[in-house]
Amino acid sequence: MDVEKLRNLTDAELLHQQQELNDQLFRLKFQLKMGQTESLTKIRGLRKDVARIHTVIREKELGIEAPSNGHKAEQPAMRKPSLSQPLPARAPGKRRKRSLL
Protein backbone atom coordinates (compact mmCIF):
# COMPACT_ATOMS: atom_id res chain seq x y z
CA MET A 1 0.00 0.00 0.00
CA ASP A 2 1.34 3.41 -0.96
CA VAL A 3 2.00 5.92 1.81
CA GLU A 4 0.83 8.83 -0.33
CA LYS A 5 -2.58 7.20 -0.71
CA LEU A 6 -2.75 6.67 3.05
CA ARG A 7 -1.92 10.30 3.74
CA ASN A 8 -4.86 11.40 1.59
CA LEU A 9 -7.36 9.33 3.62
CA THR A 10 -9.38 10.77 6.48
CA ASP A 11 -8.95 9.58 10.05
CA ALA A 12 -12.09 7.42 9.89
CA GLU A 13 -10.95 5.83 6.64
CA LEU A 14 -7.51 5.13 8.12
CA LEU A 15 -9.03 3.42 11.15
CA HIS A 16 -11.34 1.39 8.91
CA GLN A 17 -8.40 0.35 6.70
CA GLN A 18 -6.40 -0.59 9.80
CA GLN A 19 -9.25 -2.75 11.09
CA GLU A 20 -9.56 -4.55 7.73
CA LEU A 21 -5.83 -5.25 7.60
CA ASN A 22 -5.84 -6.53 11.18
CA ASP A 23 -8.71 -8.89 10.30
CA GLN A 24 -6.84 -10.20 7.25
CA LEU A 25 -3.70 -10.62 9.33
CA PHE A 26 -5.62 -12.57 11.97
CA ARG A 27 -7.09 -14.91 9.34
CA LEU A 28 -3.70 -15.53 7.73
CA LYS A 29 -2.04 -16.22 11.08
CA PHE A 30 -4.84 -18.62 11.96
CA GLN A 31 -4.44 -20.44 8.63
CA LEU A 32 -0.69 -20.59 9.15
CA LYS A 33 -1.09 -22.20 12.57
CA MET A 34 -3.59 -24.70 11.16
CA GLY A 35 -1.15 -25.60 8.39
CA GLN A 36 -3.46 -24.45 5.60
CA THR A 37 -1.10 -21.84 4.19
CA GLU A 38 2.55 -20.90 4.15
CA SER A 39 2.10 -17.30 3.03
CA LEU A 40 4.75 -15.65 5.16
CA THR A 41 5.37 -12.92 2.60
CA LYS A 42 1.70 -11.92 2.69
CA ILE A 43 1.80 -11.78 6.51
CA ARG A 44 4.93 -9.63 6.44
CA GLY A 45 3.37 -7.30 3.89
CA LEU A 46 0.22 -6.89 5.99
CA ARG A 47 2.27 -6.15 9.10
CA LYS A 48 4.19 -3.46 7.22
CA ASP A 49 0.93 -1.96 5.91
CA VAL A 50 -0.46 -1.79 9.45
CA ALA A 51 2.76 -0.10 10.58
CA ARG A 52 2.45 2.43 7.75
CA ILE A 53 -1.09 3.25 8.83
CA HIS A 54 0.07 3.70 12.44
CA THR A 55 2.81 6.04 11.22
CA VAL A 56 0.40 8.17 9.17
CA ILE A 57 -2.06 8.38 12.08
CA ARG A 58 0.76 9.48 14.40
CA GLU A 59 1.98 12.04 11.86
CA LYS A 60 -1.50 13.53 11.75
CA GLU A 61 -1.69 13.61 15.56
CA LEU A 62 1.61 15.47 15.77
CA GLY A 63 0.85 17.71 12.81
CA ILE A 64 3.93 16.62 10.91
CA GLU A 65 3.97 17.57 7.25
CA ALA A 66 5.45 14.76 5.20
CA PRO A 67 7.08 15.52 1.86
CA SER A 68 4.65 15.05 -1.01
CA ASN A 69 7.23 14.14 -3.65
CA GLY A 70 8.04 10.74 -2.16
CA HIS A 71 11.48 11.72 -0.88
CA LYS A 72 12.47 11.62 2.72
CA ALA A 73 12.60 14.91 4.57
CA GLU A 74 16.09 16.22 5.07
CA GLN A 75 17.33 15.73 8.59
CA PRO A 76 19.67 18.24 10.19
CA ALA A 77 23.27 17.11 10.08
CA MET A 78 24.42 15.43 13.27
CA ARG A 79 27.63 16.62 14.82
CA LYS A 80 30.34 14.11 15.53
CA PRO A 81 31.55 13.94 19.13
CA SER A 82 34.69 15.91 19.79
CA LEU A 83 37.72 13.81 20.61
CA SER A 84 39.93 16.75 21.57
CA GLN A 85 40.46 15.24 25.01
CA PRO A 86 41.61 11.62 25.15
CA LEU A 87 39.69 9.11 27.20
CA PRO A 88 41.19 8.35 30.62
CA ALA A 89 43.29 5.21 30.65
CA ARG A 90 42.66 2.48 33.18
CA ALA A 91 45.38 1.52 35.54
CA PRO A 92 47.17 -1.69 34.53
CA GLY A 93 45.88 -4.77 36.26
CA LYS A 94 42.50 -3.24 37.10
CA ARG A 95 39.48 -5.12 35.84
CA ARG A 96 35.88 -4.13 35.66
CA LYS A 97 33.54 -5.67 38.16
CA ARG A 98 30.87 -7.78 36.59
CA SER A 99 27.34 -7.74 37.80
CA LEU A 100 25.71 -11.10 38.45
CA LEU A 101 22.31 -9.82 37.35
Give a structural overview.
There is one protein chain. This protein has helices at 3-7, 11-34, 40-62. The chain is built from 3 helices and no strands. With 101 residues, it is mainly alpha-helical. Helix 2 packs antiparallel against helix 3 (40-62).
In a nutshell, what does this entry contain?
It is built from three helices and no strands. With 101 residues, it is an all-alpha fold.
Outline the fold blueprint.
Layout (H helix, E strand, L loop, with lengths): L2 H5 L3 H24 L5 H23 L39
Low-pLDDT runs? none
Output the helix-strand order.
Answer: HHH
Mean pLDDT: 82
Helical content (DSSP H or I, runs of 4+): 40-55%
Strand portion = under 5%
Nearest-angstrom radius of gyration? 24 Å
Structural class: mainly alpha
The largest sheet is: none
The N- to C-terminal Cα distance equals 45 Å
Which overall shape is indicated by the principal axes computed on the Cα atoms? flat
- What is the number of strand segments? 0
Q: With helices defined by DSSP (H or I, 4 residues minimum), what is the helix count? A: 3
Annotation keywords:
101 residues; mainly alpha; 3 helices
